[in-house]
Amino acid sequence: MTQTITAGAAPSTLHPILQRVLRAIQRRREHGFHFAGNFLAVSFDRVTVQDSLVSMKADCHARDGAIDGTALGVLADLALAAPVRAALPADTRLATVNMQLQLTGAPCHAPVTASSSFHGYIDGAAGRQAISRVTLHGAGREIGLGTATFMVLDLPPGTPIPFLTPVDPALDAAPLLDPDTDLDAGERTLFEHVRMALNDSKADNDFTDRLWGYRSRPRNGGASGALANGPHIANRVGHVQGGVLLGFAQATAQAALPADWGLSSITATYVSPGEGRELKAEADIVHQGRTTAVTRVTITTDEGRRVLEVLATHSLRARTS
After folding, report:
1. What pLDDT, in 10s, does the model give residues 64-123?
2. pLDDT tens digits for 226-284?
3. In the 3-class helix/strand/coil scheme, how is the chain assigned residue by residue?
4. What is the mean pLDDT of the chain?
5. Which of 208, 211, 300, 296 is nearest to 252 (CA)?
6. In the chain, what is the greatest distance between 2 CA atoms, to the nearest angstrom?
7. pTM, whole model, 2 decimals?
8. Of 194, 273, 203, nearest in space to 236 by CA
9. Regarding predicted confidence, which is higher, 34 or 115?
10. 11 C-beta neighbours (distance < 10 Å), count
């Protein structure tokens, strides 16, 4: 998997994943959107209050062939926010308050799409909290459904306003940025992070684990995880993106159980921003029966501040002959 970069090498000769990074950086320059969404080629095909359609153009599968948990979290988070953004001025920011996802267990095949709608605000709440729901499909089959609530906030000064536009296939035919000469310091950091993840991967299906950087390991009664913060997982204001946080929680919950247990639902409450040098996750097995299990995951900053609380349910996969 090693991809050596030499000065003057044509960008078109780079590994396809590194070319994806350069495309993602170009999209971020043009649309003001975070790296994770651009790397996954999240496309806002239709953004309306009642019927938004968001798709994921890039490959988003984990080693077992199911949708990568982080890709699922990012797509669901962005799709749930899309119809809310359609109801608001462009210079506002949404902070995820809670999210619930129910998975059907159907296999995920491209293209992956998400249809979502806005359902108003919580009556009587002191802050404006918007409600939305989503249905996710893979190759036409329903793979999940969910709901979320977002706090409506002012956009900090100097933060780029994103343009929620479809991914333009013509961009993939445009000349690639040159990693030696065309990237600024922050963009170079992103490029190097992905290059190192690619180099350290033992196989293609190991790459996503190293890309996002979850270090989740089983322990007695559960699992522990750690996640170094960085621009590859940050949102526009520098906090760990809400879908990435959900992916980190899912990875740690899955690590608490044997591989034949699959995630069936996840309920997440966002307590505070994912900021700081490193985030930590602790998953505890609340219940493990014959065919269902429950895990509880808490994500905190390295200073111990609570960031995310998650309750996940798991189903034992049926054995196939």
Report:
1. 556 788 999 999 999 999 999 999 998 888 999 999 999 998 877 778 999 999 999 999
2. 999 998 999 877 889 999 999 999 999 999 999 999 999 999 999 999 999 999 999 99
3. CCCCCCCCCCHHHCCHHHHHHHHHHHHHHHHCCCHHHHHCCEEEEECCCCCEEEEECCCCECCCCCECHHHHHHHHHHHHHHHHHHCCCCCEEEEEEEEEEEECCCCCCCCEEEEEEEEEECCCCCCCEEEEEEEEEECCEEEEEEEEEEEEEECCCCCCCCCCCCCCHHHHHCCCCCCCCCCCHHHHHHHHHHHHHHHHCCCHHHHHHHHHCCEEEEECCEEEEEEECCCCCECCCCCECHHHHHHHHHHHHHHCCCCCEEEEEEEEEECCCCCCCEEEEEEEEEEECCCEEEEEEEEEECCCCEEEEEEEEEEECCCCC
4. 89
5. 296
6. 61
7. 0.91
8. 273
9. 115
10. 16
Q: Band the pLDDT of 60: cuts 50, 70, 90.
A: low
| Exposure letters 161-172 (e unless 16+ CB within 10 A, then b) | ebebeebeeeee
What integer is the mean pLDDT of 2-12?
A: 58
Contact 162, 236 (CB under 8 A): yes
Q: How many Cα neighbours within 13 Å face the side chain of 311?
A: 6
8 A C-beta contact, residue 110 and residue 64: no
Phi and psi of 189, rounded to 5°? -60, -45
Tokens 């030499």, located at residue: 6
Give CA–CA dist 46/178, Å, rounded.
32
Question: What's the pLDDT at 321?
Answer: 56
